[in-house]
Amino acid sequence: MSSSNFRFSTLKMSRWMTVSGIAFILFLGVMLWKCIILNETLAIPNMKTDRSDIFVTLGALFLLGGWTWWLPRHWRPITFIVLNVLLTLLLFSDLVYYRYFQDFISVPVLMQAGQVSALGGSIASLIYWGDIVYFIDWFILIPFHIIQFHLMKQERKEKLQYSIRNKKNIIWMRLSIGTLTLVIGSIMLYMPIQKATSTWAKGLLASNWWNPAVYNITGLYGFHGYDIYRYAKENWFADKSITEEEKQQAKEWFVNHAPMLKGPSSTFGKYKGSNVIVIQAEAFENFVINQTINGQEITPNLNALLKDSMYMNRFFHQTGQGRTSDADLAVQTSLHPLPTGSAFIRYPDHTYDALPGVLKENGYATGAFHAYEGSFWNRYVMYENFGYDYFMSKKDYQMDEPLGWSLGDTSFFRQSVERLAAEQKQPFYAFMIGLTSHHPYTMPDTYTALNVAPFDKTIFGEYLRSIHYVDAAVGSLIEDLKKRGLWDNTILMFYGDHDNSILEREPLAQLLGHEISDLDMLEMKNQVPLIVHLPDGAEAGVYNQVTGQMDIAPTLLHWLGIDTTSKFYMGSNLQAEGERLVVLRTGAATNGDLFFVPAADGVFQNGKCYDYKTRDLIDVEPCRPLHDEAKLRLKLSDLVITRNVIPQLRPAP
Question: What's the distance, Cα to Cα, between the start and end of the chain in Å?
Answer without folding.
Answer: 85
